[in-house]
Write a structure and sequence with these properties.
With 244 residues, this protein is an alpha/beta fold. It is built from 12 helices and 7 strands. The strands form 2 sheets. The protein has a 5-stranded parallel β-sheet. It has a two-stranded antiparallel sheet with strand order 6-7. Helix 2 packs parallel to helix 12 and helix 3 runs parallel beside helix 10. 33% of the residues are buried.
Length: 244
């Protein structure tokens, strides 16, 4: 199983628990501020690297409203691999005005992103040492409990999202089994009818937005803490009948 999406995937799906309770390998590829365009390119990279999956779970929420834009996290994480295949090169061409320098000048590429890639991470990879993220199969647990903060979902929804349409076309063309879902949000969240609007756009969207009732399981309105992530992962497994 592979999970794609923003930090609302990265911080909410406990990959090792998925593996333990389903007997299937699991990889959490969520990352901060991911947009629909990032998910589309990552989906294409999974295909380009010939990674075999039973199901790819894609978390979609208010990012459906973001037609353009991309995650800065994905920008630096893809940099070491932009010469490996045409998908990575296309991402570079589409997202950087200095794409030729980044593609053809390795030293420039490293200098441009050194503050993000980091010498420590680069050294660990060269030595083939596992980082904390790789050890946890991409899951990053959050500590702390939310205060009285609140969050407003959008009042309106886009008529269509270009990258969502591209994702749908790609999975049909490649015969990839994809499940769309909406991660939990605090019950303090406002304008929750956005979820039903999104389900009109994506009829097979599975709604987990209100399955976690207690604020003690949230870091903030849109992110579960570690306790909440474990709780939600169990709900996810049972709801989708993923157990052995």
């Amino acid at each position: 199983y592979v999970f794609l999406g923003s930090s609302r995937v990265e911080n909410s799906v406990v990959s090792l628990d998925i593996e333990k309770k389903t007997g299937k390998k699991s990889l959490n590829l969520g990352f901060q501020a991911a947009k629909m365009s990032d998910i589309y390119y990552l989906l294409k990279l999974i295909d380009a690297y010939k990674i075999k999956t039973e199901t790819i779970f894609i978390q979609i929420d208010y990012i459906f409203n973001i037609q353009d834009g991309h995650s800065n996290v994905f920008q630096h994480e893809i940099m070491p691999f932009i010469r490996e295949n045409e998908v990575a090169k296309a991402y570079c061409d589409d997202n950087f005005s200095n794409n030729r320098l980044l593609y053809y000048a390795p030293f420039y590429r490293y200098c441009h992103f050194e503050s993000k890639i980091g010498l420590r991470e680069a050294t660990l990879n060269v030595l083939n040492k596992k980082t904390k993220i790789s050890s946890n199969k991409g899951f990053v647990g959050l500590e702390g409990v939310m205060d009285n903060s609140n969050y407003n979902l959008p009042l309106t929804i886009l008529e269509t999202n270009e990258y969502f349409n591209k994702i749908n076309s790609f999975i049909i063309d490649k015969n990839i089994n994809v499940v769309y879902y909406f991660s939990p949000m605090s019950l303090k969240t406002k304008n929750t009818n956005y979820v039903s609007k999104l389900q009109q756009k994506i009829p097979n969207l599975i709604d987990f937005s209100s399955v976690v009732k207690e604020d003690k399981m949230f870091k903030d309105c849109t992110h579960l803490n570690h306790e909440g992530a474990v709780f939600f992962t169990n709900i996810f497994i049972n709801k989708l009948k993923l157990t052995k």
